[in-house]
Structures are given as structure tokens and as C-alpha cells.
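Following up on my earlier thread - several people asked me to post the actual chain instead of describing it. Fair enough. Here it is, all 335 residues.
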Amino acid sequence: MALRARSPSRIDLAGGTLDLWPLYLLIDEAATVNLAIDLYTEASIAPSTDGKWRVREKVSGREREGATPRELSKLEGAEIAGRLLTFFSPREPLSIVTHSDAPPQAGLGASSSLGVSIAGALNGLTGFRYHERDLIEIVKDVEVEVLGTMTGAQDHYPPIYGGAMCLWWEKLRHRREPLVVDAAAFEKRFVLAYSHQPHRSGATNWEVVRRFLEGDAGTRRALEKSGRTAVAVRNALVAGDLDRVAILIGEDWEARREMAPAVSSPELEAIIASARKAGALSAKVCGAGGGGCMVVGVPDGKRPAVEEAIGAAGGSVLPYHLVDQGLSLVLDDPE
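Reply from S.P.:
Thanks for posting it. Predicted structure:
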């Protein structure tokens, strides 16, 4: 049997660093607001035709193969797939073909989404031994093993569940609160821009955690402000007040810029400044920052001018739609 899994990526509006342990245990209001979008990842998994374990990227054709999943996990570009194969332990060698709609290192959680797609397909092929929620922990732990540093959890919820949500980072277990959002209105008011600069999640996250644990007062204030802002964004979304959401994401970006110098960059600042000059209300960088994508809030009538300004400053606009469905599995024809 062959399976194809598909998962959405996400944009985050506020509280994007508070999903890191142990930060959320040391902040009074620890929440993250994000929304699933239709920049999908896919993993097609089929029996191997030659007894090799294999991972191939669909568009580039880049391929890695090994005699065992553990051997595959040591090859650049196949680390996560190899470790997930090791964990799920399918009986026969498999071939995995992957694809991502998101640009590389865009800060949209696409690597975590791809991990969920691979894990979801492997879970199906090995008898659905794990609940969907378990896949979040499995993929997150594998990412830690591969990256050798801390990772957050916000990136794994949209691929599993889809939709808009507020994630409350509480003791014992995290809580997902689904939010109802007018998708058409949101997409009209918020532009997704790509800086063409790679984001640096591992280094940026570590710098924030290190500064916080070392007692840096500015970093603590910034994290606390980001937490309060996330709760305010949640409330504004529930009320349908997108003008308020646009103002708040700008406040969250100001807080994030104060967490650590690596969160921002000259390229990001140039694009944001150009968008603001053209009439944008605010902007914030997605994920850990340092590059990648940003969400830009625009008032009615200003979108064309803002999009033109983003392009003139070296960025580009990525079309997107909010999506309600998370991980999906379908039977696939082996290639």
C-alpha cells in the first residue's frame, strides 16, 4: 500500500517564542496565536522497488538512500525522514517523495509540517498506532535530535488540526483553543511577504532563552509583552476586530525585536519600512525571525501600493488562503 499525506503550514500573529520550554513556565501569560495556510507539504510513501530506504525531493529531484533507516538519518536532507522511519519501524523498505509549497527557510513552520506529513503517512502505513496529538510530540522530539537544540511546539499544531487557534502553554499539557476567523476578510487585510533571506530559528531561539535565563531584564519584559499581546490578539480575533489585530501584531514585533538582536535584520527592516511608508499599518516577522516571511497589516485601499513597496524593497508577496483542515491521508499510486 502507498499513502500520500498533506499538511498545511502556518502564519503566527503573536507569542511566537513563548512555546519554548522553559520560557512558558516562567511567564504569567504564555500564549501563541497562529493560523493554518494553504502552503502545503506532502509526503508520498510507497514500498521500495529495490530494497533501499530512500528520500527524494519532488521538484529538485535530490535523492538520498541508505541500506537502513538509521543510515538514511545520517545523510544531509534525510535526517528527519530517517529518524521517523527508525521510530515507526515499518517492516519493509520504503521510498518517500516529499514536496513543500513554501519557500525554503521561510519561517512558516514548513519543516515541521513536512515532519507531520511524513509521520502521518508512516503512522497510517504501520497501523495507526498513535493518536494525531502524539504525532506532535514525536515530530518535535525528532527535530530536537536532528537540530541539537531546543525547538518550540507552535509549528506542529496547524499541520495536525488546521484552522486558526490560540495555543495556551500551560503546565502538564498544552491547550489548543480553536478560533473562528472570517477568512476572506483576514486575507484581504493581511499580506504575506517573503524577504528572500533565510530565517535562523535555532540560533535565534537559543539567544532569547539564554538571555532570559541569564536574567536580562529587557528580554524578560519583551517576552511578557509578547504574551500579553498574544492574548489581546486572541480577543480581537474573537471579536472580529481586524483593525485591532493589525495594530497588535506591530506591537508584538516591537517586543520581539527587543528579545535579542538576531530577531531582526537590515533586510527585514527595509521591507517593513517600505511597506509602512506605502500605508501599511504594521508588520511582524513569522517564526523565530532573522529572515523569512512577515505578515503585513494593510488598511482598505492600500494593498496595491503596499505590495508594490514590498517588491521594490527586495521582497515578494506570497498568495495564501486560510484553511480549516489539517493532516489528510489518501491512498496513492506508487511512482
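Residues 3-179+323-331 form a domain with the Ribosomal Protein S5; domain 2 fold (CATH 3.30.230.10). That should answer part of your original question.
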